[in-house]
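re: ur msg from earlier - yeah i can do the FE2/S2 (inorganic) cluster complex, just paste it... oh wait u already did. ok heres what im feeding in:
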Amino acid sequence: MKTDDPANAAAPIEDPLELRSRRWFDRSDMRGFAHRQRMQQMGLRREDVIGKPVIAIINTWSDLSPCHSHLRDRANSIREGILAAGGFPVELPALSLGEVLVKPTTMLYRNLLAMDVEEMLRSNPIDGAVLLGGCDKTLPGLVMAAASVDLPAIVCPAGPMLNGQWRGCKLGAGTHTRKLWDDRRIGKISEEEWIELEQAMTRSAGICNTMGTASTMACLLEAMGLTLPGASTIPAVDSAHSRMARSCGELAVTLVRTQRRLSQVVSHKSFTNAAMVFAALGGSTNAVVHLLAMAGRFEVDFDLSKFDEAARKIPVLVNLFPTGDQLMEDFHFAGGVPGLLFRLKERLSLDQNTVLGTSLGASYLGTVNDETVIRTPETPVSEQESIAVLYGNLAPLGAVVKVSAATAKLLCHSGPAVVFDSHAEMSKRIDEPDSGIEENSVLVLRNAGPVGGPGMPEWGALPIPKRLLARGITDLVRISDARMSGTHYGTCVLHVCPESAVGGPLSLVKSGDIIELNVPERRITLRVSDNELERRKAGAKSAVQLGRRGYTDLYRQHVQQANVGADFDYLVGRSPGLEPDIY
Ligand code: FES
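and the outut:
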C-alpha cells in the first residue's frame, strides 16, 4: 500500500459498496488524511477501516443501569460478529437510562436519548448500527433515532433477568414490589422479610421479567422484524444471548452490504402487527406512547384507535405478570415471540418485511411448547381485553386503560372525585384519615402529563389508602394524565389528553364532581354541565412554570401530547438527507 502520498490518499478500494464512511476515509484531501491518521493513532491500520462497513454498536450500558450490566460483554460479542463478517466495529456510548434510578422519570429523557443517538449516527463515519439496550425507554429511544437517520440497523435486546423466587413463590420485578409494599404498609410483611425480599427479587442482569414496558417493547420490536427471530425473550445471562449478540453483529454487516435501510423494513403493516401482538401480550400501556412516537419517526400513519381495534379482536394470550402469573423466562421456553406469532398467524400480515430480508411469515413463526403460558383464544389469560381507548368530555383526545389489569366491577363505575393537584400533595394526603377517600371515590391526579410532570412520570397507579387496604379494598378508579408502570395493575385511566397543564378538562375537575367510567362504551365523562365547565375555564390559571433552565424547559416547550407519542414537535419524521459537510 502506498503510504507516502502527500495527501495520504486512500488506496483503490476493491469493494464497490457505496459506503457512507468513505466520505470520511476514502478521500485525497487533508481531511481524509486526518481521518485516517486519527484511526491509526488508535493502533489500527488504514485497511481496517477504508472500504469496510463501519458498524456502530450503540451501547446504553452504565454503572447506574442495572438492567444493562451485561452490555459491555454483549458489545464484545457483537464486535466479534462484525469483524467475522468483514465489517469494522465502533462502540459508541449513548445516554443510559436506568429506569428505577433516573429521576424524575426516564420518560423525560427518552427524546434526549433519541436526539443523542440520531446526531451521533449522523455526524460520524457510520454505515450501519446495532442498537443495544432494553430498559424501558432505551429501545424506543434508539429506534426513534435510527428511524430518523434511516441507516441499516438491527436491535439487540438486552434480554430479561432470571425469574425471581421468594419462599416458594415466583416474584416479578415491579409487580411484586407494589403488591408486597401494600402488604408491608399494613404490617403483613415484617422489616426482616422486607430486607430479605430486596435480595430475592432481581437475581441477575437483564430487564424486568414481567410484561412491563421493557419486555413489551422488546417483544413488539421482534414482531416488527427489527430483531433476530426469538431474540427478545432470551434471558440476559443465558449463553444463547451472547450468540444472538454475535449474530446481530454479522447481520448488521449484511444489512449494509445489501443497503437494507430501516425504512425498507418497517411499514404500516409492522405497526398493525405490533398492535395485534400488543393485545395478545397484555402489554404495558407505555408501549402505546412509544409505538406512536416511533410511527411518527417512520412517517407511518398510525393512531390510538388501532390499539383499541386490536384489543377487541385478540384476547390476552400470554400468561405473564401483571395480568397472569408467569415470567419472561417461562415465556421464552414456552416458545417466545415466534410461538406467539404462530398462534396469531391468521391475524397478522405475514408478508411484512424483516431485517433478515425475508418476510415475517417465512422466518419468524415458531412453535408453542407450553399452552399454559401461550394460551389459545379459547383459554385466554383474562376474560377482559388488554386495553381500551376512552373518549369523552374529560379526555377529548383520548385516554387509555389497561383493562386486563383492572378490576372487572370497576369498569363501569360512577363516583365522586377526590382531586390532587400534584404528586407531592397526593403523597401527603393519601393516608390522612380525613382525606375523603371512600370505596366509591374516583381519585384524580393532575399536572402529571408530558408538560405538567414534566415527562409523564409513572404516577398513574395512585396508592390505595392504608385504611381501605386494611378493609380488603385493593382497587379504586384512578384517573390521571400520567403513565403507569407496565408491571403495575389496577383500574387506572391514564394518558388523559389534552393534559391538565395545558388546559385539558382534567384541570377543571373539583373534588366532589361525579365522574363516570364506562369502559364497554369507551367513555369517560365528567358529570358537570358545559356552562359550568366554561365558567371554570375562564378562571383557570396555567400550572406550567417555564423559565427554569436547560433541557427541561426545552422539553416542556416542544413535547407533544401522549396521543401522538410525546415526541418533540421538531423531531417527528425522517431526515436521511441531512448529511454533514466534511471539511
Ligand atoms: Fe430496567 Fe424494569 S427497571 S427494565
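cool cool. Residues 1-14 have pLDDT under 50 and may be disordered. ping me if u need the other ligands too
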